[in-house]
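Handout, page 2. Input:
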Amino acid sequence: MGVRNSSYVTEFILTGLSHERGIQLFLFSLFLIFYLIVLPSNVLIIITIRGDPHLKSPMYFLLANLAFLDIWYSSITAPKMLVDFFAERKVISFGGCIAQLFFLHFVGAAEMFLLTIMAYDRYVAICRPLHYSVQMSRQLCIILVMASWAGGFIHSLLQVVLIVRLPFCGPNELDNYFCDITQVLRITCTDSFTEEMVMIFSSGLISVVCFVALLVSYTFLITMLKKNMGVSASKALSTCYSHITIVIFMFGPAIYIYARPFDEYAPDKVVSVFHTIIFPLLNPIIYTLRNKEITTAMKKVIYRRLLSK
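Output:
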């Protein structure tokens, strides 16, 4: 069915973020600088956590995986968007569009599941500290991370299966800078109401449920910590606030995009930029700025690199 679809529409035209040359050059410079600064910073987080023997707790293992997923998630759309700023005709092949859609939902869903695991990690560390090393062993952390990837894969595969079986025989213009379900479903040659409802249920409802559950769990943890304030409680409280910030950045745009009918609204492109590029790259940075152990370890890594040159 996917082959038959591509025989009707072999490529999609992307409208991009703006048609004015001056604005395009400004956005290109802005996103390129941002990408080249923040991307290496996330790589540094991974190198620091893997190389520092003092950062071997499950929390840092999960944070390194979060940084890796965020790098991958942003890189799915950012490089092509930067190239397209100089393209006279912004196009993406049918196969490229489906691949972009698949990896966006694969990595995005895996990250949502990972954030849920990170919330569980904080719960065990705060509420059951004596059992923390047993309940959050290295082996269990690896299994949980693999499960988040598997969950993301299954979720994304469902989206792609629903998309490729639809006929695309007419308009092929997508009003955005990348391919996603919300744009692709609007230009199918058939009534896609059923597919839209399935995707709202699978993407939107999951986002809302996970978001509410995470907020409730972190509110509970913060309430407990404030009742027992101390040095360790203060550090845990800072970590919880960082997690809440990341959860809001990750789930807020996802809920706006997927938990409503896939009609077009004015803020869609702006929300998409923050959802696919800016916030994913900033998430680990926000976390590390509130964690003195990581910032100290990162300074040591940078210092050693400078001395070795």
